[in-house]
Amino acid sequence: MDTDIALVAGLLVGALAVPALLTSISEGRPPRVSMLALLIAFGLLGYALAMKPGGYTLSSVPDVFFGVLARLF
């Protein structure tokens, strides 16, 4: 898997998991699925950061994000 795709997928899964986690906690339900999604997001982000030579900088993340979107469309 391309590290750019793993980074973007991890960011998207994490962005969707946080509201689900907060909703389940506020409703008193156990946050099983949202915690699994957060673990997947951290795994993807960790893979992307570990396998990319030189790593990513915070300023390069938007370029990577839109570069992956451009490849899809």
Strand fraction: under 5%
Using the CA coordinates, give the radius of gyration: 14 Å
Q: Biggest sheet, open or closed, and with what strands and sense?
A: none
State the helicity in percent bands: over 70%
- Segments where pLDDT lies below 50 for 5+ residues? none
> How many structural domains?
1
Order of helices and strands: HHH
Mean pLDDT across all amino acids: 93
In DSSP terms (H or I, runs of 4 or more residues), the helix count works out at: 3
Structural class: mainly alpha
Shape: elongated
In total, the number of strands is 0
Distance linking N and C termini: 18 Å
Blueprint (SSEs and pairs):
Blueprint: H1 3-26, H2 32-51, H3 61-72
Helix pairs in contact: 1-2
In short:
By secondary structure, the protein is mainly α. 77% of the residues lie in helices and 0% in strands.
Write up this protein:
- With 73 residues, the protein is an all-alpha fold.
- It has one domain.
- Helix content is 77%, strand content 0%.
- It is built from 3 helices and no strands.
Provide keyphrases for this structure:
single chain; mainly alpha; elongated
